[in-house]
Structure prediction request, 988 residues.
Amino acid sequence: MNQSFYKFFENIDRILMALILVLILIGLVTLASANQENMTLFTNQIINILIGMVLLIFLSNIDPKSFLFFAPHLYILSLILLLFVVFFGYESHGAKRWINILYFNFQPSEIIKITIPLMLAWLYHRYQNEIGYKIHAIGFFILAIPCLMIINQPDLGTAILIFLAGGIIIFLAGLPLKFILAGMFSFLISLPYLWSKLHLYQQNRILSLFDSDRDPLGTGYHITQSIIAIGSGGFLGKGWTNGTQTQLNFLPETSTDFIFAVFSEEFGFIGIFGIFIIYFLILYRCIDMAKKMQNTFSRLITASLIFTLFISTLINISMVSGVIPIVGAPLPFISYGGTSMVVSLIMIGIIMSLHSHKSLIAN
Amino acid sequence: MDLYQFKYTFRQRLNFIFGFFIIIFLIIILNFFYLQVVKFNDYSSLSKSNSIKIIPIPPIRGQILDRNGEILAANKLIYSLEIDPKNKQDFDKIKEQLDGIVEITKYDIKKYKKIIKENYYSSTLPIKINLKDTEVAKFIANKYKYPKIILKQKFSRDYPKGKSGAHFIGFINRINKKDIKRLKRLGNFENYMGTEHIGKTGIEFFYENILHGSPGYKKIEVDANNNVIRTIKTIEPEHGRDITLNIDYKIQKVAEKAFGNHKGALVVLNPNNAEVLAHVSMPSFNPNLFVNGIDEANWRRLNDSIHKPLINRAISGVYPPGSTLKPFVALAALENNVRRPPFSIIDKGFFNMPNQSKTFLDWKKGGHGEVDMIKAIAVSCDTFFYGLGIELGIPKLNKVLKRFGFGEKTNIDLPNEKSGLVASAEWKKKIHKKKWYQGETAITAIGQGYTLTTPIQLALATARLINPDYILHPLLKKEDLVPKHIKSNPYDLENQPQRPLEKKTFSLFKSKINGMQSDDLNLIKKGMSLVTKEGGTAAFIGRNSNYNISAKTGTAQVFGLKKDEVYDESKLPDRLKDHALFIAFAPTEQPKLVTAIIVENGGHGGSTAGPIAKEIFDAYLAGKN
Prediction:
């Protein structure tokens, strides 16, 4: 009995798991400080973590062959879910991106973050010997369909993130440099056009980076308060539950998007430095795993998933410290929120499965 | 690609991305070092005092003017007593305190409670709006007694014309929860910091973006007791822009006066560019009642009235067109070479349905004698059109009606426009699950079938008779700044103002194979010009006129019509009277005005609606010549 129970955990990578748990713990501690009067968020988050952990352990025990087999099915399924949003989704905060299944509201665009890398990795794995212009073109097509659908929701931020997640796979699979350069070049020259396509408020958000007085009643004010919170944290921080910016409600969205500012205020530069070391270790560990994988499918997925997580992380941290515009991206493993937590843990679960079963599908 | 090369590229690129991430992490760490260590003292003191407050300065709403600069909606300086929401207290206490100085009525109390419930106030919460001068003087004299009550001077919307033009001008009201939700959805909420009002109907709603402007702000430093130490920075608001309408208020007034106590609507257009010169819907209401929240008694009175004064009948009222549809039916016939003159019939006052025993009567007992198409329009011969309808058939008729804009919104720049209906067999089957009878084809041809129209549609269709080669798009706002895609979504930030009206890009008729010729149009217009001549259905209008009027009268039966239920709730016998309709343009030779008039329960079109048109034409053409 004991032994079979232990079997559940035998595919868990201990180093990675420990690092992730530290991050989650940091998130909970910060969340508790940001919501002292109201513990519902805290208990909700514990439930989110438990659901995510069960899924992580479950997935770590799945034979990667199943991922390979189901990748196209999952891809098609997520496209259907996206279509479902178009017809039956409901609106929240001005965008139609949520659907309600049983008791759960979730955004199919979050699921795509996983199914797109699976599908693309499947493609490059399956046609390993024929990788060339044709396969890259097909890959690009597979990536473009959901991206366009998500842009339509409209959710530009997520669409860009998903494009990057898929783009990394195409890049790693050896897309010739001339295409990459051509893509960058055409992006640069179409910048003025893209700018004109942005909503006025989106333009203002970007401009308020350079001049916080530009949008002082909205995001400019948020950035200012967030930077004051970070800066006033100093080297050692003000101490847990002592962040005045947080506790006096100068900071917005302290549980979700701006939770990192709360952490910075209360734990200071020392805390930041510590958290960055953990980030570095996670990234290093996962990349090391990716390099040791035995087949194309596993390599590409591991790399894509970990980079997706870190792109989200970078976006959030740059946002709260005023380096990029406010886009509304959660901080993986730390921000409050069910979908973000569960999806992040699912990603880690998949990586662990691929790692522990590495000999099962060889090239 | 061989495996070895793949692995090599993969590793190389993986390392590249890894390195890229490390560099970005280093940059971010440096930034945190800069903020938390280098600039620590600055931010620390900022956070300790966190004494910077930002106070929005709301913009002043743009005015609405008629084409001659006559003010239709303006801003009036008023005084109000307000209270900081933090010091929100029991209203009875405030009332007691202010006793003998400012009268607080039951109505004020209700309003105050409602505002608290809506929970939207910019900085202070109004207790009493629009103080009298004596009240202001008394309050200032006793101000020391009320440290918590603030006397505020601010702008309030004022509609100097009262009931006149209320339907197209519209009104503003306090921002409510629904508005906040919508503004947030559009990412425009921040633009309303400090603003208390928002356009709810009419031009006030449709051009909210232009009228509202955007707020400025004041950055101030306060001490621990919230006293202002200094103003750090002031950015002036960008005030709302004025809107000049195509409406000619002189004509509007004449039209409203001529309408008298009748119910109904009229639209006057310039046929050459579809500018809306007058836009009347009766009965009307006083928009000033809404500005600071309408009280319940008035709201009940307006909303529950069987006369529905809040509905803009000119664009939202749907009516059977009656005989005013005949000129368009006739054009459809000519396009299909049905009953083209010199074809004529002998009208004995009734029409027998082919192969059926059913008989339809003409409005004139004994009939009109020999009737060709021109005369059929002039005398409004039903018999001629019953037969014409049967010969032409519904599909060919509807094709032409749709070309004139029937059954489709004109996209005038107002919210809540109705599209009317061009009824067909398919439509009936879908909606009523019933077969289309041939008799219905006959009555559709005289405008008494299921086909429904709005006054604005009728006016536009008539203007298209005069200018078939132009894209006519009726607009209230002067055309220099009109959103690109006119849809009723005024808050869409992407619909920035743009020039409309492209002219001469296509022809309604000329490009069509077998299409109408201008000769056909002239035939119809000839018929319409005879309507106001001796023997025509509106002859008495032409009798004393020193210019020629072309027109078509119409009478729409109310009784027994299924679609027109909106206005038919009452059992008053008066309400079962026919609607009078009238379309006209003048002068016949070079039309300057087009009008479509509907007088509800007005009986025969020529006798009630006709004189209204005449008065409008007289006022305008006399003024111009």
